[in-house]
Amino acid sequence: MKIELPSDHPGHKDRVCKSCGEFKQASEFSVYKHAMCYGGYQALNSCKVCDSDRKLRQHLMSKYNMTLEDYEQMVLDQDNKCYLCNEEPSDVFGKLVVDHDHTTGKVRSLLCRTCNLYLSRIEKCPDYLARVVTYLST
Hints:
Layout: E1 15-16, E2 23-24, E3 29-33, E4 41-47, H1 48-64, H2 68-77, E5 97-100, E6 107-111, H3 113-124, H4 128-136
Antiparallel strand pairs: 1-2, 3-4, 5-6
């Protein structure tokens, strides 16, 4: 459900993004419900692009202890291709995902979502791969 700010809400105006410093239209800023704010809504001070970047940075650091620059370097090193299938990401997100060892937390490489799902399945069920090979050879 798309949340619209009331027309008299202070966040309904075009303004400067606090992160990138660019002047942007009000529609380029996310809005969320907030009971303590005017009209029950709050507009973010950062535009949607900068907020998305901030969330990605936060996710990479908290889950993998890596910076966005580390991730981008891995993308370059892998030529924006999955380490396993050697294909560029083709899903709606268009990004490679970080593959890591769930026991140690060590980052291994970047994979497409499909290979990451297959790998996850193989790790959870060690005989899965052997069963797939047997299935395909029948």
